[in-house]
Amino acid sequence: MTMLTGPPFAPVPPPPPRETGPWPVVAAVLTGFWVVLVTVPGQVGGWLVEQVMLVMGLDRAVAVWPVVAVVTVLLAGAPSLALALAPRSPALRATGRAWTAAVVALGATTLLRTVPPVHHEAYLAALAVTAAVLAFVAARLARVRPPVAVDAVPEGRFGTVSLLAVAAGLASLLPWAWVGALGGALETVLAGLAAAALGTLAGALLGARFWAAFGPGPARLVLVGGLVAGVALTPLAAAAGQSGVQLPALFLLPPLGFVLAALEAAARQSGRPAGPAPVRWLIGLALLGPLAFTDPDEITLLLATTRDTPFWVAVGTGVAFAVAVLLALGYGVLLARSRARAPRRGPAALAAAALLVAVAVVYVVPGQPGLHGERLLVVLREQADLTGLPAGTPGRAGRDARATEVYRRLVATADRTQGDLRRTLTDMRLKPTPYYLVNAIETDGGPAVRAWLSGRPEVARVLVSQRLRPLPALAPTARGDAPAPTGPAWNISLIGADRVWSELGVTGSGVVVGSSDSGVDGRHPALAGGFRGGDDSWYDPWEDRRAPADRGGHGTHTLGSAVGRDGIGVAPGASWVGCVNLDRNLGSPARYLDCLQFMLAPFPPGGNPLTDGRPARAPDVLTNSWGCPPLEGCDPGALRPATAALTAAGILVVAAAGNTGPSCGSIVDPPAPYPDVLTVGAVDRQRRVTDFSSRGPAPDGVAKPDLVAPGAAVLSAMPGGGYATLDGTSMATPQVAGVVALMWSANPALVGDLERTRAILRDTAQPVPQPAEACGGPRDVSGAGLVDAYAAVRAARAAATG
């Protein structure tokens, strides 16, 4: 690329600065503070707004980042432009030009964040192109300005100072090679191109022409020029990455301004100004860390409560910031000690080579080597026809017959319609995984593969199936610090489950509850005795653990409320089976399907779900305290065929309404809005609907939730044998599943009879106080009311004799 400075022309000395007193300098200092003050809170605030809306379950506000862009350009760009146009010293004009250009670049790249984070490759490609265009424009504008005094042609791309810049950039990259993990191949290449383009843009703004404005004195160059460069790098850092990824860069880049100033001063000792090459190398390598080694989907408040991605990103940011500060100090000391002679090429090359080896070693040994990109879920147009199923006999025998026929039809449809596409994907080495509960295939592939698949006639749509990147160390297993129960918990008594045990003699025996969640601590004393056992009662598609286990604690807690003993579970005599569909509190369409398929037709370890399923071993009722939002790759209909098939098989799906209340219409994430799902909201000890409990109506207008149950300060089991109290509709949902287990235990003829079961639950529910916000009506807040275990079981028994 053509260098931005250096004669063939005779250098023209800059005009002497006007004696205008200290006020221009004061104005420049205040403007610099203002640029930083506008940029940093704007970026943090925009990310927080998106995160709060995500936690509240609201639609992503596409206008957030355009508003941030416009406000930042207006507030920070105007004073910077005034500084650039003011007829004062060359240093002040150079300062204003650099800051103005950086703010304008920030405004342009911030608009790219309207691209959803799930489409990360598209964003990185757009960022690379935009930054490259801005760099080209900045370079052209620099060439038409009058020349300034430059003593010699800038050094080559791999001169001594450039090698020192490479070494500094690799040192900045070291922490990310340790704590981060790469995405897919295309994603990594695009991240590298985006980092290179941003480095080129920084080089265009902070080239030899910029540094020449700060005079020949090395102290003034390093202190004043470094400070000005640090302020200019702040908007460029804010421009680097999708929402969340730019936050580490805001800490990392500004201290590197002093490193660049020290490198420029060192270059001048050799009589050859550094030019843009060192800036490109240092900034490009420094930005490669957060751009390539972090996933914006995982820098989220949803994971901030554990030692997950946000924790490790914070660790990487802190270490990288310390490295940047040490580089600024170290290069400054190197400059001071080498005033008599310029830095030598040999030691600089050796330092760069050593750090390159160090990055490789750290990445391979303590890091997370390999590629960890997202996969695709290809949903086919044809779904299985489940109409006309035989009614069968009442009870489990009839349910098993229906489940077997549903399984047969689903698998037959998948085999008939997927064959050609599976073979093609296998030939392309994209590792296809077939699914039958939803007729779909999960496969490797980026945007190009997705576009190709979307154009095939048998394909309805292609979803992104998120895959979590590995961490340097797993988060510690969640534990409970609450005392063990001494009798039935308050929520058990509130719904009358303890009366069912003592007065009706029903505990749920003979019924199997299926839990799809973060896992289950199978050795917990409240749960160990209820495990169904056998080789088809546990499945972990994430880590392939062969025995029930749980690190997050959420699954142990929820299942404890359904079938736990010692007073925490509604149906302590019921058995349970489990599946892991959440890892580190996030899932994907494919992992949710893995578990739902296992619940329809369990299979042994290593078995093929399409050939080794055992529908006669399916659990009777499923508790699902999770939802699949767009962040994880689901669209509204992603799991609709799955719940329809489970319902057709006579398996009752109970699901949490969500914790995004009190907003109306906040039951949106599958499977909670589906009409064939029994959706559960939450109440407190006073039978009042909690503020966090999501409200209806569902997007299709169906009244939701169906019922409410206790969901505030619910005591239940935690991994390691402990207990904890937690809040959420997650806690309410398993209690309704437990009530169903009690009903079916009292009247086995009801097993698989979902319509009668739902009718009994509705008819026996107790009214609850209605909050002021009624949404579409009371049923969109509390459904039929508070589940009443005692009344429901008595009604179930009466149905057996009626």
Automatic annotation (TrEMBL):
SUPFAM superfamilies: Subtilisin-like (SSF52743). Keywords: Hydrolase, Membrane, Protease, Serine protease, Transmembrane, Transmembrane helix. The keyword Transmembrane helix applies. Residues 508-768 form the Peptidase S8/S53 domain. It holds the Pfam family Peptidase_S8. The active site is at 517 (charge relay system), 554 (charge relay system), 730 (charge relay system). The chain crosses the membrane at residues 21-42, 62-86, 122-142, 163-183, 189-214, 221-241, 247-265, 277-293, 313-336, 348-366. The keyword Cell division does not apply. InterPro entries: Peptidase_S8/S53_dom, Peptidase_S8/S53_dom_sf, Peptidase_S8/S53_subtilisin, Peptidase_S8_Ser-AS, Peptidase_S8_subtilisin-rel. PANTHER family: CELL WALL-ASSOCIATED PROTEASE (PTHR43399:SF4), SUBTILISIN-RELATED (PTHR43399). Belongs to the peptidase S8 family. This is Peptidase S8. It comes from Micromonospora chalcea. The lineage of its organism: Bacteria, Bacillati, Actinomycetota, Actinomycetes, Micromonosporales.
